[in-house]
């Protein structure tokens, strides 16, 4: 009975954690017992047990409950057999041809190529460095360390390097791995007493790429091995590419010598996207969508709207576009601004930055070069009154504060004063292009 239940949970987990994590961490688990609210798992090593508990424990409990179990607690046990002293190898099996199982890397996404990577100011340096590595010429900087926030294209660039190298120089041994995979390989090698194989395999690589190395921080023995592999490869003149979500110096619990070694090469960061880059990416991705849904029409301004509003990361932007096209094709309608707002209201809301009245006052005062105290103070001269009204207008439109609340924040003014200010700007916006431009500029600045 537990088998069926666990099989179901496994299915859910595979979807939830992704292929890589699934094969590294979830697959090795065996549900041994489900009793008295405790789910007991056999795990190959204590490390795997701890790791799974910390990183996937809640998720496992959640899916166990969903599948109808009452497990409140998880227990990870290394079965006595595995812990026992070196078991004699069963009948010294005759050496089978080894097809380098450990050398196959993490799977590469075929869509992540240089062709599909849109270059803009925020990523041009990272892109240029990746291109250089992909040419496969003499190693000029080692390692190449790419870092930046989630969804800014680190993995995309690494896969692009791998694809390009495989096409240009198929004889090169290119290995791309997530840091989790690296750890997992290392742990299984330790467990199976195959460290020699592990070492020689890794050291036979021509280009090693390890993605998301921030995960190695704190894992002492893995760090140690990573460091040795790293040094051996650098000494042999092999190229290494590493990515992380932050600069080497900022990775927690990473040994100093590893940090400094990583800083020896070229460290480049992918900056947060700007509007132009987001628009460029949207245009490229839209072409892809149009191939899937050739009949759909997109109203002008939709892409600009999305590039403007979804500023978090490219993955979210991409997801939004996919959803939008699927939705529009379902309901058989043109992708208008209105449809976009309806379909993506949750994404749009989530990426709306919460702006405060105080921030608005500060930004507007800065913009018009007046003192913040004058913005709030009683003086009514025009040079102060206009910016004040602008700030009131923005406060009304960009925050959820009521008119009386806004009035209070402007030195205790009455809500009718605020209303008057808001109306004034509404009028001017239509007739005075300078005011309209200022508003747009301020709005954008506040949203970033
Ligand atoms: P990271 O590894 O930095 O978290 P990814 O490389 O996985 O981010 O990128 C997230 C998604 O955004 C991927 O689908 C990727 O193709 C896309 N993406 C990111 N940057 C760009 C870009 N400059 N051009 C095209 N697609 C991009
Ligand atoms: Mg990534």
Summarize the structure.
The protein is of the alpha/beta class and 448 residues long.
Structure description:
The chain has 448 residues and is of the alpha/beta class. The protein has four domains: 80 residues, GMP Synthetase, Chain A, domain 3, CATH 3.30.300; 169 residues, P-loop containing nucleotide triphosphate hydrolases (Rossmann fold); 77 residues, Helicase, Ruva Protein, domain 3 (Orthogonal Bundle), CATH 1.10.8.60; 91 residues, Chromosomal Replication Initiator Protein Dnaa, Chain: A (Orthogonal Bundle). The protein is 56% helix and 9% strand. It is built from 21 helices and eight strands. The strands form two sheets. Strands 5-6-7-4-8 form a five-stranded parallel β-sheet, with helices on both faces. Strands 1-2-3 form a three-stranded mixed β-sheet. The longest helix is centred in the first third of the chain and has 21 residues. The radius of gyration is 28 Å and the shape is globular. 34% of the residues are buried. The chain binds adenosine-5'-diphosphate and magnesium ion. Magnesium ion (MG) binds next to helix 6.
Binned, the helix content reads 55-70%
CATH architecture of the largest domain: 3-Layer(aba) Sandwich
Strand order of the largest sheet: 5-6-7-4-8
- Report the CATH topology name of the largest domain: Rossmann fold
Which class do the helix and strand fractions yield? alpha/beta
What's the number of structural domains? Answer: 4
| SS summary, helix count | 21
Tell me the radius of gyration.
Answer: 28 Å
Give unreliable regions as ranges: 87-102
């Amino acid at each position: 009975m537990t088998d069926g239940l666990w099989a179901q949970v496994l299915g859910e987990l595979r979807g939830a954690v992704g292929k890589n994590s699934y094969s590294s961490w979830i697959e090795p688990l065996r549900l041994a017992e489900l009793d008295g609210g405790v789910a007991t798992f056999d795990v190959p090593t204590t490390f795997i047990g701890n790791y799974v508990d910390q990183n996937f424990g809640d998720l496992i409990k959640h899916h166990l409950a969903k599948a109808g179990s009452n497990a409140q607690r998880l227990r990870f046990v290394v079965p006595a057999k595995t812990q026992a002293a070196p078991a004699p190898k069963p009948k010294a099996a005759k050496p089978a041809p080894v097809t380098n199982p450990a050398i196959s890397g993490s799977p590469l996404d075929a869509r992540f190529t240089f062709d599909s990577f849109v270059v803009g100011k925020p990523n041009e340096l990272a892109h240029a460095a990746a291109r250089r590595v992909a040419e496969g010429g003499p190693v000029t900087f080692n390692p190449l360390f790419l870092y930046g926030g989630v969804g800014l294209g680190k993995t995309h660039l690494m896969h692009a390097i791998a694809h390009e190298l495989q096409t240009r120089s198929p004889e090169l041994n290119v290995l791309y791995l997530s840091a989790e995979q690296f750890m997992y390989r290392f742990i299984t090698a330790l467990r199976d007493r195959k460290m020699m194989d592990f070492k020689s395999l890794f050291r036979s690589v021509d280009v090693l790429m390890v993605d998301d190395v921030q995960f190695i921080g704190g894992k002492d023995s893995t760090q140690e091995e990573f460091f040795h592999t790293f040094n051996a490869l650098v000494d042999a003149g092999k190229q290494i590419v590493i990515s992380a979500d932050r600069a080497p110096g900022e990775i927690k619990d990473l040994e100093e010598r590893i940090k400094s070694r990583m800083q020896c090469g070229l460290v480049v960061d992918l900056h947060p996207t700007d509007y132009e880059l987001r628009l460029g990416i949207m245009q490229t991705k839209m072409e892809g969508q149009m191939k899937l849904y050739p009949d759909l029409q997109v109203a002008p301004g939709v892409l600009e709207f999305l590039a403007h509003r979804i500023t978090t990361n490219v993955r979210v932007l991409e997801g939004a576009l996919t959803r939008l096209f699927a939705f529009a094709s379902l309901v058989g309608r043109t992708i208008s601004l209105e449809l976009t707002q309806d379909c993506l209201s949750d994404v749009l809301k989530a990426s709306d930055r919460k702006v405060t009245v105080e921030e608005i006052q500060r930004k507007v005062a800065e913009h018009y070069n007046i003192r913040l105290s004058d913005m709030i103070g009683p003086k009514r001269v025009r040079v102060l009154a206009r910016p004040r009204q602008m700030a009131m207008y923005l406060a009304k439109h960009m925050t959820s504060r009521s008119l009386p609340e806004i009035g209070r924040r402007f030195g205790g003014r009455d809500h009718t004063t605020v209303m008057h200010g808001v109306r004034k700007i509404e009028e001017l916006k239509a007739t005075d292009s300078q005011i309209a431009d200022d508003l747009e500029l301020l709005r954008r600045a506040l949203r970033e």
